[in-house]
């Protein structure tokens, strides 16, 4: 007898992470995927023609915040993976109002319907929720304290918005027994990520391929932990299928940190580029009160414990895959 497919609703499924996740689930054969995406930063081009034609996919190119059938869609699926959001430092700083409204109200709606119809939700949070607390040798645990800058630094609105969404989830869990997993992603990168909104690796690789100058913001000593999108997707999948993981929060990221200066050097080397590196002050990039975090390194012992999996692709390999 044919097994019934598990129905997954992926919001933001035409975006960077969402499209990798959709392709992954379609390959598994026992899932059918419905995507809701307003094409603001996503694109149909992120999926192959074969994927788009698959009988296991439905694509709805509409905005979550203006979709009368949203409740019905949630009701008709088993698991909702909520990735849709306004993303990218530049978008957040220059289009704060729309970003704040989008990142809070879309989650609010989805949570309400998930709770009402007893559907499970996986929510895409971010390492930004930790704010600027990370220093020294310390790594960030899911239970770590957070610290943000003042509210005239609009970049923090993204972190605070996502953190507020996390609180919303906790409250729903407590009051309404909602089943949820919160995923805190740390700099997910890979082929197909767009550069327009301040994503550093696609920016560097696009410019290196054209032998253009790579602009390093600030002194370049700030470090990040770049994580391969395919490994992040595998972690989402494993968590989704781990009973104990429901109602938990997880850091999803690589344990290896690299400074932005070294990232620029590696991209130039790997692309055999003639590009030069130039440092520019944050105020010249964002033209506003801006502050960055010096470091953001996850403690992923919880992830390892629950799914026995570690994202560990080397940064060289990730760069090679991204630039090709
Ligand atoms: N990429 C990363 O490094 C990273 C890091 C931390 C957190 N995240 C989170 O992961 C999620 C996915 O990020 P991504 O990198 O794939 O970004 P992305 O911009 O590629 O994907 C977001 C998708 O959501 C869609 N979207 C946005 N608002 C929508 C709305 N109101 N209705 C319908 N569709 C909407 C966009 O068109 C896009 O396809 C986001 O929630 C983001 O905050 C990503």
Tell me what you see in this structure:
With 324 residues, the chain is of the alpha/beta class. The chain has a single domain, classed as 3-Layer(aba) Sandwich (Rossmann fold). A seven-stranded parallel sheet has the order 3-2-1-4-5-6-11, sandwiched between helices. Strands 7-10 form a two-stranded parallel sheet. The longest helix is centred in the first third of the chain and has 21 residues. The radius of gyration is 19 Å and the shape is globular. Nicotinamide-adenine-dinucleotide binds next to helix 1, helix 5 and strand 5.
Question: Layout of helices and strands, plus pairs?
Answer:
Elements: E1 6-11, H1 16-28, E2 31-36, H2 49-53, E3 57-60, H3 70-75, E4 79-82, H4 89-94, H5 96-116, E5 120-126, H6 156-176, E6 180-185, E7 188-189, H7 200-209, E8 214-217, E9 223-224, E10 227-228, H8 229-240, E11 249-252, E12 258-259, H9 260-270, E13 277-280, H10 282-286, H11 301-307, H12 315-323
Parallel strand pairs: 1-2, 1-4, 2-3, 4-5, 5-6, 6-11, 7-10, 8-13
Antiparallel strand pairs: 9-12
The structure holds nicotinamide-adenine-dinucleotide.
What keyword list fits this structure?
single chain, 324 residues, alpha/beta, Rossmann fold, 7-stranded parallel sheet, two-stranded parallel sheet, 13 strands, 16% strand, binds nicotinamide-adenine-dinucleotide
